Amino acid sequence: MNGTSTITEFRDAVLDPAKRAHYRLAWLSTVDHKRIAVLYMMTALVFFIIGGTEALFMRLQLAVPNNHFLQPDTFNQLFTMHGTTMIFLVVMPVLFGLVNYVLPLQIGARDMAFPRLNAFGFWCVPFGGILLHFSVLAGGAPAVGWFSYTPLSETPYSSSPGVDYWAVALFVLGIGSISFAINTIATVISLRGPGMTMRRLPLFTWINFVNAFIIIFALPVLNANLAMILIDRQLQGHFFLPIGGGSPVLWQHIFWAFGHPEVYIMALPAFGIVSEIIPVFSRKPIFGYEFVAASSVAIAVLSLGVWGHHMFTVGMGRPLDVFFAISSMLIAIPTGVKVLNWTATMLGGRIRFDVPMLCCIAFLIQFLVAGLTGISHASVALDWQTKNSYFLVAHFHFVAVGAIVFAVIGGLQYWFPKMSGRMLSERLGKWTFWLMVIGFNMTFVIQHFLGLLGMPRRVYTYPDLLHWGWMNMLSTSGVFFMSAAALILVWNLATSFFRGKVAGDNPWDAWTLEWATTSPPPHENFVALPPIRSRRPLWDLANPDRPDPIVGENSAAVTLPDHNKVGILSFILSEAGFFAALILAYLYFYARPQAGPGPKELDVPRTLVFSVCLFASSFTFWRSEVALTKQRRGSMLGWLTLTILLGGIFLVGQGTEYWKLFQTGVDLSTNLFSTTFFTLTGFHGLHVLLGLIALLIFLWAAWEGDFASGRRESAFKSVGYYWHFVDVVWVFVLLTVYILPLLR
Amino acid sequence: MTTYQFFTTAWTWNSIVFILSAVASVGYFLAFGQRGRPLFFAAAVVVFLFAFLSPFNALASSYLFSAHMLQHILLVLIVPALLVLSLPRSFSLRPPLTFLTQPLIGWIAGVGAMWLWHAPTLCNAAATSRTVSAIQTTSLLLMGSVFWWQVLAPREEQRLSPPAGIVYLFTACTACSVLGIILTFAPVSICPVYQHPVDRLGMLSTIRSDWGLTSDRDQQIGGLLMWVPMCAIYVTAILAQLARWHSCPAPQTEKSNA
Questions:
Q1: Which of 153-182 (B) contact A at CB < 8 A?
Q2: For residue range A616-653, what is the model confidence (pLDDT) as tens digits?
Q3: Which of the two ends of chain B, N or C, has the fewest CB atoms closer than 10 A to its terminal CB?
Q4: How far apart (Å, rounded) are the C-alpha atoms in residues A637 and A698?
Q5: Are B242 and A587 inside 8 Å of each other by CB?
Q6: Which residues span the domain enclosing A137?
Q7: pTM for the whole thing?
C-alpha cells in the first residue's frame, strides 16, 4: 500500500503507548532493508559518541606536557578502544547503513537479496560492540592498539582477557561485514530492475559493488589472523610468539594484508557518496563516468597487494621495500583520476552550495592533503622518518575524518529527506559543517608539524620540548569545535525528524532511482519504475526532449542470475581467502621446521583412503542433485544419505588421526608444526561438519517432502556448491600437509 | 668482469633462436600475408630475441633467479600476448585444437605455467639442461598463448565477456600472487642452482658484492617480480576489459573482415 511508510508510522506511534510496544518489536525483528539501514546508522551514532568521548579524553591528556590526567594504562586502553570503535563500529556500520538504504532503491529492487542475512549482519554489530566493551568489566579493555601487534598482544605481555574480547568481537564484526558484502553482491547482480544494466548503475551502487569484493577478500584474512591469535592465547599455540619459533612479523603481514584494503573499504563508499552529490549539486552529469567506475576497480585490485608500506619500519629488507614502494605509488593514479573527475564535474557547473555540496568540497580539499601525505609514505626513506610520528596520525585522520566523515555528513544531509520525509535543517547543517571544518583542521593540520618536529605517536604523554606544548594545546582545542559540531548534528537529526520541512519525493532535483519513489519509500519501495535507458532515468523523465544518450543495449528481457547461486559463490570466495591465509601461514612455518613432531608423524596412506571418501561424496551429491532435477525422490534421498555417510566417515578418519596424535602426546601446544597442523585441518573439519549439518537439514526437509515439484532446487544446489568447495579445500590441504613432505 | 663489460659483451649469438625467429617470421607472412597485424608479430619477435640474446639471458641461465623470473614473465605473458594479437581477425582454431578455447583450460594453462616450472626439481632442471630449457620455453609460449586467447582472441565472440574476463584475470592474478608470496617469503631456495652458480663469465663477485644481490635477496626479487609487476600486467588487462566493456556497442555491429 502506498503512503504507509515505516518512518511516518513510527513517528505517530511513538506518541501512543499502546502502539509503542508493537513498534519496538517491529524494529527489533525487522528484515526490511530500510529499517535495518536505520538501525545500522543509529548503532553507529551510539558508538560514535562513545568513540568520540574516548578521543576527547585522550586529547585532554595530551593537551599539556607531562600530564597526569590519565594513567598510562588507561590511555592505552582508550587509544585501543577509540581506534577499534571508530573503524569497526562507526565508519563501517554507518556506511553499510547508507548502502543498505540507498543501494536497493538505486537499482529499483524491493529489498536486499537476503533480508534475513541482512538482519543477521546488522545484529553482529551491536553484539560485537557489546563483546568488545564487555572487556572493560572483565578485567580491563585491550591496551595494545587497534592493530594489536604481537608479541605485545600475546598472553605473556597482555594477560588480562581484553585482547581475547577484542579478537572475538572483531571476528563477529568480520562475519557481519562479510555477510553484508555477500548480500550486496547478490543484490546488485540478481535484483536489478528492468533496464538497469550493469553499465547503467549509479556510481554509488557501482563503487559499493566493487567494495563488496574487497570486503569478501580482506575480512576473512583478518578473521584467520584473529583465529590464530586466539589459538595462541587460549590454547597455547605458537603462531606469533618468538619463544616457540613463531613470528610476530607474520601477524603484521596478515594484519596489513587486511588492514590496507580496510582503508579502501572505508574510503570507497565515501567516494561513492561524493560521486552522487557532486553531479547533482553542480547540475551536470559526472565527468567521465567510465573513469570513475574503472578506477574503483583498479583501486580495489591494487589495494590487495600494497600492504607492505605499513611495514617499512619493521625492516623487511630492501627488495620488499622497493617493490611495495612502487606498487603503493601506483595507487595514487586511480585515486588521482577520481579527484580529477570530481573537480572537472564541478567545472562550469551551476554549483549549489547546500550542506551536502559543502561537505563534498571540504572532502575534496582534505582528501587531496590526505593523499599527498599518504603518497609521501610510499617513499621508504621518508617513511622511516615520519611513520612513527604524529605526521602519520595527521595523515590517516585526514583520510578517516577529513574525507570519510565529511562525506558521511554530506551523505546524511543528502539522503535524510528520503529516509524520513523531512529535510535536515540547512542552518544547523551549516553550523555543523563550519564547526567541523574549523575543529578538524585545528586538531589535525598542526599534527603534521608536530610529527615533523619529532613527536612520536602512541605515547600517553610527552616532555616539554620547544613548540610541542602550544601545538598540542591547539590540537586539543579543535576537539571542542568538533564535539560541538557533532552535538549540533545529533540535535539537527532529532529535531528535523519531527519538525523538519516536508521534503517531497525529490527535494534535490536528483536523477537516480531512489528519488523516483515517495519519501520515505513505501514498504515495497516502488509502485512502478520509470523507464531506464541511461544513467539518469529521472533526467530523461523530466526532459523527454533532450534525454541522456542511451547506454548500452536496451535488454529488458534478460534473466538475471539466481541470487542463491551468486550469494553462495561470494561466500565461497570469502572462505577461499580464509583458507588461503591459513595455508600460507602453514607453509610459512613448514619451511622453518622446529624441534619435535613434524609431518612424519602423519599417517598418509590412511588419510588418502579417507580423502577418497570425501571426494566421492562430491560425486554422490551430484547424483543426488540430478535425481532432484528428475524428480526421483527415493534416489535423491539415497544419494544424499550416502553423501552424508561419506562426509561422516571422513570426519571419523580425521578424528582417529587426532586421537593417535594425542596418544603420542602431540597436541596443539606441542610445537609450531602441531599448532599449524591442528589449526588448518581443524578449521577444515569444522567446515565439513557445518556442511554435514546443512546436508542433514536438507535430508530432513526432503524426507518431509519439501522438495516436491522442484521447489528449493536452487537452495539445494547452493549447498552443493559449498560442499564441493569444502572438498576442493581438502585437495589443497592434503597437498600441503600430507603430500608436500613426501616430495622432499 | 665489471658491470659495464658485462652489459657490453654478454650478448649471446644463439643460432637456434635466430633460425627459429626467421622461420616463424617467414611462416607468419606465408600464412597470413597482408591480413595479419605484423607490428604485433614484430614486437613479439623483438621481445623474444631480447629475452634470449641480451645479457639478461646470461644472468638468467646461470646467475640470477630474478633474471630467470624476468625471462619467464616475458615468455609467458608478453610474447604470447603479442603473438595472439598479431593473428588476423579471421583466424580461428580448427577442430582438434578447439578444446584449447575452454576458459578453464586457458586459466589452468596460464596459472599452471607459473606453478609447474617453479617446482624446485623442474626449475633446477630447466636451468641446467638445454633440452629441458627448450621444452620450458616452448611450453611457456604455448601455455601463455592459450591463456591470452580468452581475452585477446582475434574475434570478439571468441573472447570472454568483459565481466567474465575480469574474473578470469583477477583469479589468475591472485593465483600467481600467491606463488610470488611463497617465493618471496620462502627461507629455502626454490631453485638451488642459483644459490651456488657456476661462474662461467667471472661475474659472480660483481653480482654478489657490487650489485648486492645475495642469493636470498635474489630469490626475494624473483618472488616480488612475480607478485607485483606481473600483477600490474594483469591489472592493465583488467582495465582494458573495463574499457572494452564501456566502449562496446551492441555486438551485432561487430563484423568479421574475412
A1: 163, 166, 170, 173, 177-178, 181-182
A2: 999 999 999 999 888 888 899 999 999 999 999 999 99
A3: C
A4: 10
A5: no
A6: 31-537
A7: 0.94
